[in-house]
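Figure 6 in text form: structure in, sequence out.
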């Protein structure tokens, strides 16, 4: 339907209808406009629930003209009628409706709640998927919510039809929440860390906001890394003897205040230093020493027991290793 495309993601402001020229009769708003040199008339009705019906009448023949709605009917005249009709409904949209970010009411409600709590608006990054909106933590620049319109079959092969879903990052709480109705393994994101929630009122706004809070908290945390250092090429063992800050070549997506653990390779094979990223540019980072660990306190064998299989390049640490390191 032409109307569906034009009025999609719009919210009716009834107070503006009368000002625009609509007449209220029996709880129905009515509007008429002549087009095509007054040979055609457009009638628009909007009921109390916001349902919109548009009709075009040929005044010379005194009948409803519907050819412009048929896909298999072509021609300059039909296209002119269609264009004039679209201009009428687009004018109504621009003057009597407010733009909404998403399609579903619950999606827009949650969008407003996120804005109120975290002062964040959605970003629409993809031309191929213009309705996909991401919410980014301003302090860390990380996503904590993604809202997408997808087919239900992406979540459950036995279902179909469009639905908007909200993706949140829950990490260790993923499996627990997957037991709840309306929550599914994440679509289009890591199923180990994220879940998808259908925005069809299966879950209340309060329940979903509680999960959004968790996701925001996870996005707000400082990232912890472990990086290898080969003593054959750089005397890392004695690097902090005369200074508390060293310069390191930037080879990964570090950010200011990230925590970096320096793992000394063979013949040592253990974590020796805990640092914080105090400065960065396109080429280097500065690592400020926070703590020295005892020799062999965090050996490679201990790292393996915490889920670290290798340390060949900079990598994020596991939650279990983070817990152990921050207790040590």
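Output sequence:
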């Amino acid at each position: 339907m032409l109307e569906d495309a034009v009025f999609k993601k719009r919210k009716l402001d009834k107070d503006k209808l009368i000002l625009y020229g609509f007449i209220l009769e029996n709880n129905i708003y009515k509007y008429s406009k002549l087009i095509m040199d007054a040979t055609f008339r457009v009638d628009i009705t909007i009921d109390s629930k916001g349902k919109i019906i548009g009709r075009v009448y040929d005044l010379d023949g005194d009948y409803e003209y519907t050819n412009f709605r048929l896909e298999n009917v072509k021609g300059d005249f039909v296209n002119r009628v269609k264009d004039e009709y679209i201009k009428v409904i687009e004018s109504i949209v621009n003057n009597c409706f407010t733009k909404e970010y998403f399609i579903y009411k619950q999606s827009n409600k949650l969008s407003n709640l996120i804005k109120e709590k975290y002062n964040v608006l959605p970003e629409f990054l993809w031309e191929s998927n213009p309705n996909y909106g991401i919410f980014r933590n301003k302090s860390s620049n990380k996503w904590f919510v993604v809202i997408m319109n997808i087919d239900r079959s992406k979540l459950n092969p036995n279902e179909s039809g469009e639905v908007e879903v909200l993706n949140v990052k829950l990490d260790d709480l993923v499996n627990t929440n997957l037991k709840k109705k309306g929550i599914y393994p994440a679509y289009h994101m890591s199923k180990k860390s994220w879940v998808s929630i259908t925005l069809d009122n299966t879950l209340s706004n309060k329940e979903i906001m509680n999960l959004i809070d968790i996701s925001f908290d996870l996005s707000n945390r400082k990232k912890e890394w472990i990086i290898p250092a080969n003593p054959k090429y750089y005397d890392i063992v004695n690097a902090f003897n005369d200074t508390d800050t060293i310069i390191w070549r930037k080879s990964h997506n570090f950010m200011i205040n990230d925590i970096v653990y320096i793992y000394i390779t063979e013949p040592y094979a253990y974590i020796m230093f805990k640092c914080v990223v105090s400065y960065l540019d396109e080429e280097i980072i500065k690592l400020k020493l926070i703590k020295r660990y005892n020799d062999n306190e965090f050996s490679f064998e201990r790292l393996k027991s915490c889920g670290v299989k290798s340390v060949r390049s900079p990598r994020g640490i596991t939650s279990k290793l983070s817990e152990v390191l921050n207790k040590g």
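Caption detail: The two ends are 64 Å apart (CA to CA).
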